[in-house]
Amino acid sequence: MVCDKCEKKLAKVIVPDKWKEGASNTTEGGGRKINENKLLSKKNRWSPLGTTKCIICKQQVHQNGKYCHTCAYSKGVCAMCGKQVLDTKFYKQSNV
């Protein structure tokens, strides 16, 4: 759960762009190299385990943020900035 301001900061998806013009994954115009191995290239290397950890439960967060998805939803805050997004006063939630 992310607020409107932090929605722009979310990481890009790994699927190819739909349009050829201006796409970052095309070979024309200095985009991607031909026969480039993405696992061995050091530029823009993706790691499935994030470097940041959740403030509450110390679980690794998959994107840059303060809270994991579970803690952010249970507290009703934005996962990236910690701003109150949802009022969870009347919610029935358990820690199981």
UniProtKB/TrEMBL annotation:
UniProt keyword annotation of Cytoplasm present: yes
User: GO MF terms on file?
Assistant: microtubule binding
Q: Specify one Pfam family.
A: Cript
| Keyword terms | Cytoplasm, mRNA processing, mRNA splicing, Spliceosome
Cited InterPro entries:
PDZ-binding_CRIPT (IPR019367)
Q: Which GO terms describe its biological process?
A: cytoplasmic microtubule organization; mRNA processing; RNA splicing
Compartment list: Cytoplasm
Q: Does the entry feature the keyword Transmembrane helix, yes or no?
A: no
Q: Which residues cross the membrane?
A: none
GO cellular component terms? cytoplasm; spliceosomal complex
Family affiliation: Belongs to the CRIPT family.
**Do you know which PANTHER family this protein is assigned to?**
CYSTEINE-RICH PDZ-BINDING PROTEIN
The protein depicted here goes by the name Cysteine-rich PDZ-binding protein
Write down the species: Kalanchoe fedtschenkoi (Lavender scallops)
